[in-house]
Amino acid sequence: MRKAVKNIDHNSPVITIRDLHKSFGDYQVLKGVNLDLYDGENLVVLGKSGTGKSVLIKIISGLLEQDSGTVNVLGHEMSEISQKELRDLRLHIGFSFQNSALYDSMTVRQNLEFPLVRNKKNLTKAEVDHAVESVLDAVSLSQTINQMPSELSGGQRKRIGIARTLILQPQIMLYDEPTAGLDPITCDEINHLINEVQERFHTSSIVITHDLTCAKQVGDRVTILLDGQFKRTGTFEEVFDTDDERVKSFYDYNFIQ
Ligand SMILES: Nc1ncnc2c1ncn2[C@@H]1O[C@H](COP(=O)(O)OP(=O)(O)OP(=O)(O)O)[C@@H](O)[C@H]1O
């Protein structure tokens, strides 16, 4: 089902990218990318394998440096950021990676406590407990608190992974292929969760996916990375209402609910 239209304030970007270029040797991956992520929106980034979606996310999170152009994240210009500022900034960015595995030898509670104990050292035990219970409630898995990851389904592990990210109360969420490898019903649940996270935690999110059902269900806006640039950006319907064969073929090869 198509996501309901949400009013987004287009005057308050949390990420602004202008004329971003990135090459590896002679291979130009990003060739003048422009992008805004507005406060409180879910922006879906579509693109075939190898088009540079992960490179873009790595530049946004300071794991890779751009060759040229500007990347501003929560008011920080990434080419000028100090190591200390970068460490602090990363606490405001939540990563939900495809393989963001849980620690198998730790219970769900211990997995969730881990980022807090490491990054917010002066919290009391009661505050940590409260934070753990609150994020578990947000992902509707309170009953799993004492379970081991091996006792959870793939979808549940994905939800706990998202909860572990949320525990640091990020302003920006970066989801890399959130529905990859999940069955359609579990995909549906994860898409709902992404929208719930947006509402409950007021996050602004970039969702990288090949899954058009996911794009339709979670995206306030959708954009497609083609030949190193975002060629089409808008609502799901606006993006696919085109005669551009490259966009049409992307649509035609996807099963969509
Ligand atoms: N550190 C690196 N060194 C050299 N080449 C790289 C590096 N990182 C990425 N690339 C190249 O950049 C291109 C884009 O890679 P990227 O991982 O961003 O693709 P993607 O769009 O995320 O693909 P997928 O959907 O398969 O994950 C690829 O050709 C890749 O080989």
From TrEMBL:
UniProt KW Ribonucleoprotein keyword: no
Pfam families: ABC_tran
ABC transporter domain sequence ranges: 15-252
GO MF annotation terms: ATP binding; ATP hydrolysis activity
Keywords on record: ATP-binding, Nucleotide-binding, Transport
Name the UniProt record assigns to this protein: ABC transporter related protein
Organism this protein belongs to: Pseudopedobacter saltans (strain ATCC 51119 / DSM 12145 / JCM 21818 / CCUG 39354 / LMG 10337 / NBRC 100064 / NCIMB 13643) (Pedobacter saltans)
